[in-house]
Specification:
- The protein is of the alpha/beta class.
- Helices cover 44% and strands 16% of the residues.
- The chain has an eight-stranded mixed beta sheet with strand order 7-6-5-4-3-2-1-8.
- Helix 2 links the parallel strand 2 and strand 3.
- Helix 1 packs parallel to helix 2 and helix 5 crosses helix 6.
- The longest helix is centred in the middle third of the chain and has 27 residues.
């Protein structure tokens, strides 16, 4: 078996529990050949991770995970091999970061309306990077309002909870276009969770490059199903653990095993796009 790769990792730059450098340390322990840091709506952890990857001899792919909407359907799209210096995507991510901070204030206000004394300042203080609902959940745990993060989502900040506030709604075309403009390739994350297979042909038509076929919560049957869908729609395959450290303790970096050959094919696509072939 070839050394594996993990192209879906989160750090403290968004809602992970380990710093970007620590994520790379974990990747080294797992014996991974290449990794991508794909924090939500931010590339602020990329440089730290890149430096640590070079020290450890691990191939590094700069990435990001963004959310797109089709009606009420939510799709997570990962950008891989993005140029973090490109102003368009960096500006867009900056806007999303500022909106996330404002959103945490609105969530805190709604929670206070139901008797939970949570402030935006304490939520933002728990975020090394952009704040998200995971940081709200952690604040609720620390205050003793809930016993764990899962309860926080279930009772208060899940999509039907009293503290839920929608994020800015980008379209798939906007997300895929921003990733392409930054020189990257786009992948539909965990399609087995979003369960929107009927959208895949249209996503491919507007420029989607790949599907995340390998994912810890995909069954073998689902993996094979998405491999067939990828082939049918002319898409490449990606894969990763969706590692968040202690915030998803049951998820382990490098699992499932994602073959290095997939990473090579993705890298070849990036080179072909860059050369105009």
């Amino acid at each position: 078996m070839s050394r594996g790769v993990d192209l879906h990792l989160h750090s403290t730059a968004s809602d992970g529990g380990r710093s970007p450098a620590e994520v790379l340390d974990d990747a080294a322990v797992a014996g991974l050949a290449a990794v991508a840091l794909t924090d939500h709506d931010t590339v602020s952890g990329i440089q730290e991770a890149r430096v640590r990857a070079a020290e450890l001899g691990i191939e590094f792919c700069p990435g990001v995970e963004m959310t797109a909407y089709v009606g009420k359907a939510e799709l997570h799209i990962i950008g891989l091999f993005i140029d973090c210096r490109e102003s368009g995507v960096v500006d867009l991510l900056g806007e999303l970061g500022r909106e996330r901070e404002a959103r945490s204030g609105r969530i805190a206000s709604r929670l206070r309306d139901v008797g939970l004394e949570i402030t935006a300042d304490e939520i933002n203080a728990l975020a090394a990077g952009v704040p998200g609902r995971m940081h709200v959940a952690k604040a609720l745990v620390e205050r003793g309002y809930v016993s764990d993060i899962q309860e926080a989502f279930r009772r208060y900040i899940g999509d039907n909870g009293p503290g839920y506030v929608e994020k800015r709604r980008l379209t798939p075309a906007e997300v895929i276009g921003a990733i392409r403009e930054a020189g990257g390739i786009s992948s539909l994350a965990h399609p087995g969770l979003s369960n929107r297979d009927e959208m895949i042909p249209e996503l491919a038509r507007i420029g989607l490059d790949a599907i995340e076929t390998y994912y810890p919560h995909h069954t073998q049957r689902q993996t094979e199903h998405y491999q067939r869908l990828a082939a049918k729609n002319g898409l490449l395959e990606t894969g990763g653990s969706d590692y968040h450290g202690v915030f998803k303790a049951s998820v382990h970096i490098g699992e499932p095993h994602v073959p290095y050959e997939l990473y090579e094919r993705l890298r070849e696509r990036v080179a072909a796009v860059g050369s105009g072939d």
